[in-house]
Amino acid sequence: MKLKLTGLCLATTAILSGCNYLQPGNKDLALNNNDAPKDAWSSASEEEINTIHYMKQGWDDATRADFWHMSQGSRFLPYDMFINLEQRDSKKLILAPDNIIKYRYIPQNKSYWNPDGLPIGFTKDVQKNKNDSSKIEASYAGLNCSACHTSVITYKGDAMLIDGAPTQADFQSFFTDMTAALKATYMDPKKFDRFAERMLKEQSNNPEARQQLLTELGKWTRIRSERELMNKTEVAYGNARVDAFGEIFNAVSATNLRVPENASPPDAPVSYPFLWGTAQSDVVQWNGIASNKPPGPLARNAGEVLGVFGDIQVSNRFGKLGYKSSVQIKNLAVMEKWIEQLHPPAWPEDILPPINKDMAARGEKIYELNCASCHEKVAPMDTYRSVMVSQTAIGTDPVMARNALRTAYTGILQGEKVGVIGGEKFGEEALKAEILKNQVLGLLVNRPFSTLTAAQIEYLKVKSSRPWKNPESYKARPLNGIWATAPYLHNGSVPTLDDLLKKPEERPETFKLGSWDIDPIKVGMAQNSASAFTFDTRLYGNSNKGHTYGTNLSPYNRKALIEYLKTL
């Protein structure tokens, strides 16, 4: 298989962290079964994984590999500190595949694409010298969108890697345990000795070098511990969910404004949305909070980076334009273009049981009667206007919609323009969503010639302070590729499509998360020994009630509808 180099990648080689790996003419760089540690992957399935299938979704291997590891500007630890960090209770490194798979992130072997063997979605962000770009000042470990939007689904020894699908990873537990590992390394002399040997090499016995390293380790242990405490919740997220907005709101209103009392528990975890079709909708996010008109996608992605460890310097600007940040705006723009080209995965009939065509035809008619008014069928690349359904009408868990309306003290932003270059001025308090908007626009206009056209700047002046139209509602979207996106409902409270199409009182009160295995009959998450986390729908934010559409179908018609949903 020959490697195809995208024109976009070649045109931007100088600015991208991943494309500079590519060498025109190499013919043996196709992703293959040796790029992943199948023995580690197998612990996420009941059966040993023999073959890895990279699904055909419109990307070549160059695009896929770059998407997995391109930096967006996220910085959760200095890079060398991260790759040399041991697990809390082990001499093994935190990056050991058998540790990474424990959290259901996707471990990878070292390869041409990935020299350090980072898991999918983990990145190396390089900070270059301002005066000499050939010199590197610092490197940081971070995340990009593929950490949360890449999935593996397994069935009888076959693994299907699906780009843009919601991850099964446990974000909360991974970073809690990473912080615990930092603390253990700082406190345990023997653990620190091993850490120093890896970090300092021939200088590992130098007292001054060791003290500097210990000081740096202590600083980052404090930074991560403070964030851990700020984002502590009573109900664990578990696999396949995160309260992204809750953590973003805390970052922008408490950390970045240096107002600790602005922090609120990020206690509305939601299922990760799938990425294919994102560019087709007029708004995005479960509650439709983000416009998808340019430069909306860029702003949305920049906001995501601020929530996953991106740096920003927010201050009274005194005539300065915007805020300095670590956000890699050009990389975000390129990745957004790739997402526009991403196709939903087709049900793989060579791996999973074939679709019953007669049943699917019957199911299509049922879909038109019961589902299509909200979940319209949209052709690839066609745009559509999202259907927003009020929370009271749909009856699903209300916590995410309500938390989006949280307010905070504006601190140093009081008196500043909400839209940085336009809009009303901040009072003493504001919606956290408006504070987020201010910081996103501030980092964008800080580099206007690389991010925004003059017309877009004028658009921001007009639109910057308008709230979204449907504050307590949830978005219905087309269901292309829905078979690969369990668990279901916005908060991930239903494990299969079969369960979703039953009355709420008949849905599972508890179920297991963490297995990569699919149930191809019920279509969703298999319940087996590879599942480690118990999801309890009785807990706060976990309700599986509501969305009663199609719940009166007979078992036969329900099966027909599910068979049709496999075809989307």
Outline the structure in words.
The chain has 568 residues and is of the alpha+beta class. The chain has three domains: 31-279, no CATH class; 280-343 and 390-478, no CATH class; 357-379 and 479-565, no CATH class. Helix content is 32%, strand content 12%. It is built from 19 helices and 20 strands. The strands form nine sheets. The chain has a three-stranded mixed sheet with strand order 1-6-5, with no helix packed on it. Strand 5 (150-155) and strand 6 (158-163) form a beta hairpin. Helix 12 (357-370) packs across helix 19. The chain starts with 6 loop residues before the first helix and ends with a helix. The model is unreliable at 1-28 and 461-467 (pLDDT under 50). Pfam families: RoxA-like_Cyt-c (PF21419). Keywords: Heme, Iron, Metal-binding. This is Cytochrome c domain-containing protein.
Features:
heme; 19 helices; heme binding; alpha+beta; electron transfer activity; 568 residues; disordered N terminus; Cytochrome c domain-containing protein; cytochrome-c peroxidase activity
Going by helix content, strand content and strand pairing, the class is alpha+beta
In spatial order, strands of the major sheet run 1-6-5
Number of domains: 3
Unreliable segments of 5+ consecutive residues: 1-28, 461-467
User: Largest sheet, described in full?
Assistant: 3 strands, mixed
Q: What's the tally of helices?
A: 19
Please state the overall shape, judged from the principal axes of the Cα atoms.
Answer: globular
* N-to-C CA distance: 28 Å
- Total E-strand runs: 20
**In percent terms, what proportion of residues is strand?**
5-15%
